[in-house]
């Protein structure tokens, strides 16, 4: 199957095509993490995606990464997200929500709290706060009680997500955030049951995923991974052993999907993960050229490589009607200045034109 515009299925959901909108942090929430009406407009504009995976939302206060990041641990957060899902549903779309804890990717200037992480290893770079770029603090190594409480926070956030109208949630174990910090050897120097060999370092991701699946059902639970990723100072010395160990622990849970970031069609590990994973696999391709032809080729290539669905990020940022453009072979809007992704407001967010606007 390489026809990415043909209908698809994800569990009980019938999707209009195979192209999903990947989770994209855009820093448009209120200061306390509550989604805004502007966010509802943004997502509703992109409701023609086969499935929208909403941007990373933190399950507790200490998990916040940067200013104006969305959250989901209070009633106000839940009510704000409900307005988003209602707007998307009214436009004919479906949504999952990504749940993300920043771990050491955080700062007291943003949260008022000391960041927590598997080990007291700071981010090797500055971090953005309302006061500008500041040196990253040394995080506090999580105790067993911290770990248990964080697992429970993920489960609670998942229940809130379903209450807010999401079809399910994606557990974020990628891109150098807390769960990925437990996976990687340079950020996880623990000697207890959560550290050491790969089989122990995957434990935290597994426990979070099991708790979320127990709270809302495995069929509503996905997991995102980024094998070999180096974002946020991550270094994996044993990637080829680490991710098969993780997939081995997750494969029998009956999860909705496994989402692989920057999937490489020619990579031996990607082929092994596809062979080992019994369910739906979402591939997020590497895109160097944001043109109609390049996006179409990447989508076909992902499906030909064995992915069941394709997650796209930047093309959906600039093209709220991406699918219509691909169907017609119409040109894509160019992505505007990078800083507009994160500064707040409508510029570079809800003001990208659709074909009908021309």
Describe the structure.
This protein is α/β, with parallel strands linked by helices and 358 residues long. Helix content is 33%, strand content 16%. The chain contains 12 helices and 14 strands. The chain has an 8-stranded parallel beta sheet. Strands 1-2 form a two-stranded antiparallel ribbon. It is globular, with a radius of gyration of 19 Å.
Helix content class: 25-40%
- Radius of gyration, whole Å: 19 Å
Based on CA inertia axes, which overall geometry fits? Answer: globular
Poorly predicted segments: none
User: In which order are the strands of the major sheet placed?
Assistant: 3-14-13-12-11-10-5-4
**Total of helices:** 12
What is the H/E string?
EEEHEHEHEEEEHEHHHEHEHEHEHH
How can the largest sheet be summarized?
Answer: 8 strands, parallel
First-last Cα distance? 33 Å
Quick structural summary:
The protein is an alpha/beta fold. It is built from twelve helices and 14 strands. The mean pLDDT is 96.
Key traits:
358 residues, alpha/beta, eight-stranded parallel β-sheet, two-stranded antiparallel ribbon, 12 helices, 33% helix
């Amino acid at each position: 199957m390489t026809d990415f515009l043909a209908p698809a299925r994800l569990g009980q959901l019938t999707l209009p095509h195979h192209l999903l909108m990947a989770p994209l942090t855009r820093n448009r929430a209120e200061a306390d993490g509550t989604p805004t009406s502007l966010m509802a407009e943004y997502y509703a504009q992109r409701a023609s995606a086969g499935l929208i995976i909403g941007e990373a939302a933190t399950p507790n206060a200490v998990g916040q990464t940067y200013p104006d990041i969305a959250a989901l641990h209070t009633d106000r957060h839940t009510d704000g997200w409900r307005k988003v899902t209602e707007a998307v549903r009214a436009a004919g779309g479906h949504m999952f929500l990504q749940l993300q804890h920043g771990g050491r990717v955080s700062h007291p200037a943003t949260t008022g709290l000391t960041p927590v992480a598997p080990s007291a290893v700071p981010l090797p770079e500055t971090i953005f706060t309302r006061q500008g770029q500041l040196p990253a603090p040394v995080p506090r190594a999580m105790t067993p009680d911290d770990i248990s409480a964080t697992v429970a926070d993920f489960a609670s956030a998942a229940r809130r997500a379903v209450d807010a109208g999401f079809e399910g949630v994606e557990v974020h174990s990628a891109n150098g955030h807390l769960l990925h910090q437990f996976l990687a050897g340079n950020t996880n120097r623990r000697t207890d049951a959560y550290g050491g060999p790969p089989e122990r370092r995957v434990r935290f991701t597994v426990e979070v995923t099991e708790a979320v699946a127990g709270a809302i059902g495995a069929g509503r639970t996905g997991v995102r991974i980024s094998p070999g990723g180096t974002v946020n100072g991550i270094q994996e010395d044993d990637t080829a052993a680490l991710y098969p160990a993780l997939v081995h622990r997750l494969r029998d849970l009956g999860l909705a999907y496994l989402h692989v970031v920057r999937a490489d069609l020619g990579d031996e590990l990607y082929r092994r993960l596809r062979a080992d994973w019994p369910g739906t696999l979402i591939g997020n391709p590497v895109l160097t050229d944001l043109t109609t032809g390049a996006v179409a080729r990447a989508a076909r290539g992902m499906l030909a490589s064995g992915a069941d669905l394709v997650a796209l990020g930047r093309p959906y940022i600039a093209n709220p009607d991406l699918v219509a453009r691909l169907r017609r072979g119409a040109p894509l809007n160019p992505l505007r200045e990078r800083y507009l992704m994160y500064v707040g407001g409508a510029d570079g967010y809800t003001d990208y034109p659709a074909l009908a606007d021309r």
